[in-house]
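Q: Second attempt. The first request was missing the SMILES, so the protein and zinc ion are both included now.
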Amino acid sequence: MTGPLPTHLHYKRGDAPHMDILGGVSIRPDGCWGHTLKPNRKGYVYMDLRGSRKHWLAHRVMYEWIVGPIPKGLVIDHLCRNRGCLNPSHMQPVTIGENVLRGHGASAENSRKTNCLRGHPYDAQNTYVDRAGKRHCRTCNRERQRKS
Ligand SMILES: [Zn+2]
Ligand SMILES: [Zn+2]
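A: Got both inputs this time. The predicted holo structure:
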């Protein structure tokens, strides 16, 4: 699938995808969209746009292409925890603060949260993600309910 960039994209006029990004997408069994473009060391996929020397984050391009503009100042959070994933339904625009709290913003790189404040693991069994995409610790929730 190729086509002109929608007008709501934030890119400068004259920029156009230099390659067919959607054509390189493969849908994995878990629903994530992989890409023939290789992710960088941090796991992000970058792409070039014609007329621009910058490399663009492919998942942001994909989100804006399919869903719509990312509000100014917001960053994309991958709900699936797969930074290379290009499936817009796995993405949610959040503030940078939220993204750091969730443990995978750039500054959280070194202190990635794998546990809740009380030290329970944020693993598949113990983690509950609410509709806003926030993680909750099931053990803490249970203890809180018992006390009240
Ligand atoms: Zn995904
Ligand atoms: Zn906990």
